[in-house]
Amino acid sequence: MNIQQTEVVIIGAGFSGIAAAKKLHEAKIPFLILEARERIGGRVFTKHLSENLYVDLGGQWIGPTQDRMYALCQELNIPYFETYDEGKNILNLRGKIRTYQGIIPKMDPLSLINLDILMRRLERMAKQIDIHSPWTHPNAGKWDEMTLDDFLKKYSKTKYCYEVIKIGCETIFACELSEISLLHALFYIRSGTSLDCLINIKNGAQQHRIEGGMQRIIEEMAKPFYDKILFESPVERVIQGADSISVDFGDQSIEAQEAIIAIPPPLLNQIQFEPGLSKEKQELFQNYPMGRVGKCFMIYEKPFWRTLDYSGQVVSDDPLTHQTVFDCSPADGSFGILMGFVIGNRAEEYFSLSEEQRKNRMMRSLKQYFGEKAETAIQYLDFTMSDEAWSKGCYAGLMPVNSWSKFQDNYRKSEDRLHFAGTEAATRWHGYIEGAVLAGEAAASKIIKTQPN
């Protein structure tokens, strides 16, 4: 077996692993990175279709209070631009299509009042959550036993109110709302600043996009140590000894003093740990599913909907179409790109179809919203991280009922020489790229603090 030696081995070259590596590099601590794919980025993946045309198949937005991402853009001299947010939005609810301005769709007065009260209720509850220990809230047990869907049904007095907030929450959490506890939803909202921030484009989590695509940031981050990344090297075994760690992959091994693990939670089940991870971690991994989301892109020569005074944004409860649609055209509008999210059960049904069927379904729905010009697309493509062996889903791992109460912060706890990163280890902006960066830097900081002066 070919054995290499270093100070730290990092498993995973997504944003969290690369952020950890950057911090170690700056501290002059030797490391090697093992990446199962042939690329860096993890759940961020920018696909270039031509010199001036690209789509972000994974994470793509940044917004206010994501301070590390903005700092990285400044440090690396990478420009960002405003997500297009002008003109009429579209609501497709119970077979009726209507337009509206702003964040709240047009509905009957009772539903609008109900929606406002329900959103403010969620906001108030989330503000009470300690992001470092959500299980310590006096009502944590009760909230953790209830699904988010149970809560929304209980306090939605009209069907319209329930359908609209359900679509919004599905887009935020990338799952069926019966798959997560209310406590997890409240923690997630608090972690991401507020419900308004998570939902909005202007002053919200979707405010800015990166010129050239999100992967441009991680490529620049990794440039100084790109030669330290070993691609197509999935880890098979991690052996902790008294004084060191051995990480085996294929017919090779790396011996190190410390390890940072920065991969999606389900992938940890595919690694043999000797000795095994703690009982609590192992139990958590038995029911720690990933979000389920697909991104579908219809590409046009120009963003024609803008001349019709449409923002390109759609919210729909139609189970055969996308929950939400956004204008994802490049900064200069040189192409027009409409991107639709299919989430949870809708995503599974949608991706059971052939690519031609998926394209036709999206084109039919866009024609319904924007007219016959929607049929003039020059290209269609779609992608789901659920089909990726080294992601298993997106945006992040989900905490089902009673998980926070039982497992608390066990995921992010270090175990001897093993340190855990990834966005699931983040307390701030959990589930987002910002969270991945913060968790990677936190893991690296633990190692740096143990180094002799």
Automatic annotation (TrEMBL):
Question: Amine oxidase domain: which residues?
Answer: 15-448
Q: Check the record and name the Pfam families matching this protein.
A: Amino_oxidase
Q: Which GO terms describe its molecular function?
A: oxidoreductase activity
The residues that hold substrate are F341
InterPro entries per the UniProt record, alphabetical: Amino_oxidase (IPR002937), FAD/NAD-bd_sf (IPR036188), Flavin_amine_oxidase (IPR001613), Flavin_MAO (IPR050703)
Amino-acid positions noted as binding FAD in the UniProt annotation, renumbered to this chain: S16, E35, A36, V235, E424
Per its Swiss-Prot or TrEMBL entry, what cofactor is needed?
FAD
Concerning PANTHER family, the annotation shows: AMINE OXIDASE, AMINE OXIDASE [FLAVIN-CONTAINING] B
Q: Which family does it belong to?
A: Belongs to the flavin monoamine oxidase family.
Q: What is this protein called?
A: Flavin monoamine oxidase family protein
